[in-house]
Design a protein that fits this description.
Blueprint: E1 11-15, H1 20-31, E2 35-40, H2 43-54, E3 62-66, H3 72-85, E4 91-94, H4 112-134, E5 137-138, E6 144-145, E7 147-152, H5 176-196, E8 203-209, H6 224-232, H7 240-252, E9 263-265, E10 268-270, H8 279-295
Parallel strand pairs: 1-2, 1-4, 2-3, 4-7, 7-8, 8-9
Antiparallel strand pairs: 5-6, 9-10
Helix pairs in contact: 1-7, 3-4, 4-5, 5-8
C-alpha cells in the first residue's frame, strides 16, 4: 500500500499541467507529498489549476512556470529557469501535447504539432538530464534512486512514418492525424535514445501511454467531424484519473525505476511499434533533430 507522503521531498515537473491528464497527474503526485511544478502557457489557467489542487493538498508544495512550448527560445529559457530555481529535480513528465486539424507554424517556422509534441520535450529533457542525473539520491541502505524522465506517448505512434529530411512535413500535404502520429513516433524514439545515452543508475527515461482518455483538451482544434467521432467513442475511453495512473506509476514506482528506454501502458511494459524499436532510425533522428535545432539557433 502506498503511503500518503511517500513522495515527500521530491520535486516533479509536469508540462501541460493545467487541464486534463496533466492536471490529474499533478493531483496524484501532490497528494502523495511531492513538490509539483506546473508548467503551462497561460498564467490564469495555471492559477486556476493551483487553486483546484490546493483544495486537496498543501499549497506550499505547488509551484509554477510559465512557458509557451511551441517556442524554442521559451523552452530553452524554461530549462534555465527550472535549473536555477530547483537544486534537484527528481522527475520530469513531458505531458504537453497538441493535435491540430490544420497546418500552423510556430514563431520558429516549424509545424506546431511537431514542435510541441516532440521538439519541446527533446530540448527540455536534454537540457535538464545532466543535472537531474547528477542530483539523483541514494538512501540509507545505499540504493540509488535514479531521477526519471517520462515522455507521454500514444498508440498513435504506431501509425507514424518519419521522413528525416522533412521532419515536420513541410514538403507534404498536411494531415492532422499523420502529423500527430509522426510526432509521437519521434518522441518514442527520442526516449529510447536518451535512455541509451544516460547512466541508468542515475537517470531512467521511459514512455508512458495513458491510452484513450476522456476529459482532456487534446484534439480540440481538430475539424468538427473528427470531434464528433471522438464524442461517439467516449464510452470506450478511460476516465482521466485512470489514464494518469500509468504516468504516475512510470514516474514513481520502485519497479519502473529498474528499467529504462521502455514503453509502458496500463502500468506494464509493452512493445512499441517496430519503427519505435529501430536503433538506427533513433540515432539518425537524434542527429537530424540536432541539425534542425542548430538551424533555428
Amino acid at each position: 500500500m502506498t503511503e500518503p507522503n511517500d513522495l515527500a521531498g521530491r520535486t516533479m515537473v509536469v508540462t501541460g499541467a493545467t487541464a486534463g491528464l496533466g492536471l490529474e497527474t499533478c493531483r496524484q503526485l501532490a497528494r502523495r507529498g511531492a513538490t509539483v511544478v506546473l508548467v503551462g502557457r497561460d498564467q490564469d489557467r495555471i492559477d486556476a489549476a493551483i487553486a483546484d489542487l490546493s483544495e486537496s493538498t498543501d499549497r506550499d508544495r505547488l509551484c509554477s512556470a510559465l512557458a509557451d512550448l511551441s517556442s524554442l527560445d521559451r523552452v530553452r529559457k524554461l530549462s534555465g529557469e527550472l535549473l536555477h530555481r530547483f537544486p534537484r529535480i527528481d522527475v520530469l513528465i513531458n505531458n504537453a501535447g497538441v493535435d491540430r486539424g490544420h497546418r500552423q507554424l510556430t514563431v520558429d517556422g516549424i509545424e506546431t504539432t511537431f514542435a510541441v509534441n516532440y521538439l519541446a520535450p527533446f530540448v527540455l529533457a536534454t537540457a535538464l538530464a545532466p543535472a537531474m542525473a547528477q542530483a539523483s539520491t541514494a538512501d540509507a541502505a545505499g540504493y540509488r534512486h535514479p531521477a526519471r524522465i517520462v515522455d507521454i506517448s500514444s498508440s498513435g505512434h504506431r501509425g507514424g512514418h518519419l521522413v528525416l529530411d522533412d521532419l515536420d512535413g513541410a514538403k507534404d500535404t498536411f494531415h492532422g492525424q499523420r502529423a500527430y502520429n509522426n510526432s509521437k513516433l519521434a518522441l518514442t524514439l527520442f526516449t529510447r535514445s536518451l535512455a541509451h545515452r544516460s547512466d541508468p543508475a542515475r537517470l531512467v527515461v521511459n514512455c508512458a501511454d495513458p491510452g484513450s482518455v476522456r476529459g482532456t483538451t487534446l484534439g480540440r482544434d481538430r475539424p468538427f467531424g473528427h470531434q464528433v467521432v471522438g464524442t461517439l467513442l467516449t464510452p470506450f475511453t478511460a476516465e482521466v484519473a485512470k489514464g494518469a495512473e500509468t504516468a504516475v506509476w512510470t514516474a514513481t514506482a520502485t519497479e519502473s525505476g529498474k528499467f529504462t528506454g521502455r514503453y509502458v501502458k496500463g502500468c506494464k511494459v509493452v512493445q512499441p511499434s517496430r519503427d519505435a524499436r529501430d536503433e538506427k532510425l533513433a540515432a539518425r533522428l537524434w542527429d537530424a533533430t540536432e541539425a534542425l535545432l542548430a538551424d533555428r539557433g
